[in-house]
Amino acid sequence: MRMIVRDARLYAGDGEVAPGRADVLVEDGRIARVVPYEEPPPGTDGDAGTGPGTDALAEARTDARTRVVDAHGALLAPPFVEPHIHLDTALTAGEPRWNASGTLWEGIACWSERKETLTREDVVDRATEVLRWQAAQGVLHVRTHCDVTDGRLLALDALAEVRDRVRDVIGLQIVAFPQEGIRSFPDGERLMTEAVRRGADVVGAIPHFEDTREDGVESLRFAFALAEREGLRVDAHCDEIDDEQSRFVEVLATLALRSGLRGRATASHTTAMGSYNGAYSYKLQRILARSGISLVCNPFANLGLQGRFDAYPRRRGLTQVKEMLAAGVNVAFGHDDVMDPWNPLGTGSPLQTALTGVYAAQLTGTDEIATAFAMVTDRAARVLGLGEEYGIAEGRPANFVLLPAGSPFDAVRRQVRPRYVVARGRVVAETPYQATRLDWPGEEGEMIDFVRRRDAAAWQRL
Ligand code: FE2
What are the Cα distances from residue 353, in Å, to 5, 18, 95, 390, 410? Predict the structure, then answer.
């Protein structure tokens, strides 16, 4: 199947938009051509463009099977990337009980009870449901953590089944995540090794949850050794606690730097960083930048969970997003939990995550808001190590979203749903544009999603 997207603004990465507009030709699931768009001569029906590459485009357009989409200047971006979610726990909020204190620790206790009742169908059903929600919102790459502190490894097997089932639409990575510890949970090391043997893509850890600091350090050493041996990446839940003494991120970064996993390791959450003093933070920036590790900040869960033991003043309890970006560290935003013991809300929306991240991390400068878009697209893709498989360029897989927005800033502000989501050259989701009929003093008409009236026409035609 062939497809042409005409007259699109192209997302160029890190919040930037490429100059001009482009036509994108899709063939056999790949992006075949990207050529500058040129306005058709006046009086034509728009099919008589004369720009470079029009031969290929004109030929494709005469093929009745070619789908032609006129973007009217809308933003064509590579798909959203979810760098951190927990599909095995998703949609279990209130089962068997609600997390009354709202703390991370009671959440873990609730989940520990719910885990006993897991079945394969239960996990497959809930995980698939959330992935459907994400695909409809343009998320086509997902890294899920999966609790492997369960002697049966039932959720892991179930998620591996889901990974196979959805692979034509979503690329799913599964992290072997030891929710109750590697050293502190009976048989933890064996379960991690077995999880990798059964097909986990990434090695996890949770050093701050281990019984002692020494156990935490040892658990990271174990995770890196396992990942190195198996050729995998590392993504640890790291320092997700308000304790300023929790400093495992320096251990993780140093292990990454000294092992063969430089640039292939991620520290998720790192909320203790929100309590570190200035002198230590400065030292840490240098280690993190040199190590090439990524950080994933999860604003929903951690705004909800952190600071629960504080009186006032109460800490925000998030990692140092702004400072680490400035230091050259790759930082992404993750959704983390969706309707589970740690977050009762959530729809899997990457733009909700980005918007919440903007406020949580005070990224309110115009460039910073565009960066927040990058943190749920190309910066998150770096966490997953997608490399040349990701982005709008000739020869790459035709995975993209067409957003009814003029810029990444606009997409974050208006929380737009993609008009089209394309996976491997196939339209997998379409959301027709909806206008609100507004009866307003002195006039009556349509209101388009918080766009000034002078700009609304383009999105109405999309
Ligand atoms: Fe998490």
Answer: 28, 24, 24, 21, 15
Told to judge if 82 belongs to the known catalytic residues of this protein, a careful annotator would answer no
DSSP 8-state symbol, 166: T
Taking phi over 0 as left and psi of -120 to 50 as alpha, with beta for the rest, 129 belongs to alpha
pLDDT in tens, 222-241: 999 999 999 999 999 999 99
Measure the CA angle with vertex 385, ends 380 and 388; round to 5°: 100
Distance 3 CA to ligand 1 centre (A): 38
Q: Enumerate domains of the chain plus CATH numbers.
A: 2-78+391-459 (2.30.40.10), 80-389 (3.20.20.140)
DSSP 271: G
* Cα 336 to averaged position of ligand 1 atoms, centre (Å): 5
Which residues lie near ion ligand 1 (Cβ < 5 Å)? 336
320 token code pair = 């140092």
pTM of the model: 0.96
Question: How far is ligand 1, taken at its centre, from the CA of residue 124, in Å?
Answer: 19
Q: What are the tens digits of pLDDT across the range 47-58?
A: 544 454 566 667
Q: Is 234 helix (H, G, I), strand (E, B) or coil?
A: strand
